[in-house]
Amino acid sequence: METVFLTKGTKDDLPLSYDEAILGEEGNQWKQAMDEEMENLKTMGTWVRTNLPKERAVVGCKWVYLRKRDEYGTITKYKARLVAEGFSQKPGTDYSDNGTFAPVMRFKTLQTMLAHSAINNWKLRQFDIKGAYLHGELKEEIYMAQAPGYNDGTGQVYLLKRALYGLKQAGNVWNTKLNNVLIGLGYTQLKSDYCCYIRSNGNDMAILLIWVDDFISITSNDKLNDQIEKELKSHFEVKSLGQPSLIIGVKIRQGDHIIKLSQTHYIDKLLSKYGLQDANPLSTPMDPTIKLDNQEEAPDEEKTSSLSKFGYANLIGSLMYLAIATRPDITYSVNKLAQYTSAPKPKHWTAVKRIFWYLKGTKYLELVYGETPELLNSRINSTAMWIGHLIWTGSPSVDTLSLSQGEL
Length: 408
Prior knowledge:
Strand order of the largest sheet: 12-13-14-15-18-19-16
Number of strands: 20
Distance between the termini: 29 Å
Radius of gyration: 24 Å
Oligomer: single chain
Number of domains: 2
Helix content: 25-40%
Largest sheet: 7 strands, mixed
Order of helices and strands: HHEEEHEEEHEEEEHEEEEHHHHEHEEEEE
Strand content: 25-35%
């Protein structure tokens, strides 16, 4: 990804510690999730228990919690992950400065490959690699404290053998392992995006898109997807998720020569988080009568915003995720307002709020790749013309088609 705010979800009131998880209303679910994680770490041979050498410092660890949800926002799984506190690692001893880089998939790569998939009617399948980082073997000796809630009282520590999540070198070690496997299977790594691999043989085409432990396989036929699944399972523990329905927080629907992307649930979550769920929706993301500059406000203008407690940069980041992923119709507005992140004036806060009001009224819009009579026969919205991507409203009551990225 080109930006750091593309994540799998928001914080969603998740517990911040072992005690908070256990003592909460969902304590049983979190305890089961932690037990499963500890069993998986044990199976993978992640560490051996030993005494801490006198000359060595211990690296801390903590639990990180996640509620996995489907494209409709329904909780599908409680997940707990034991994470090393990488900030306590000592350079030169616990890790090498040149061994911490790990590539991240660019969203434009995903969009480009999905567009090709729609045009060529390629087949999509999603895979999850269980304990992805744990497949990488560490070269350094790293001593970590025992997991909160699972301390045996012996005073011993974990001597790590596998690249546990949170270690500064974990992403690099996993990427090196994965790259070696895929190159050995005949794939070529894309130079413009190190998280995209391509393999072709005559008319057969296979593309793998990698997002840490989530794989998207794009092939010219389903038999190739079956072959890829078998190949991956010969090296890793792989779970096939079938045809993708949710990719990096983006809902995906595939039909015959058409793929539609949307983030309705994400928009609803943002509106609720920022207290805007009851606001009146608007039809445009910006007010053309308002001049956005650094000039001081008029004396009678409102000096504070109800959104100020969330931070201007956080709001812009949330909107930028939407603009990059599925909503190019707000790109100009978000980029314009991002220019005032260092010292936003009340009018900039109001303009940000207006984008959310606009999103509330247009949350069912979908970014569409491909061509169908359904799109070609849709009515063109005469109030705004855009150029670039194609957006189609999935609302049953309104059929609006607009071309996006820059106003005419």
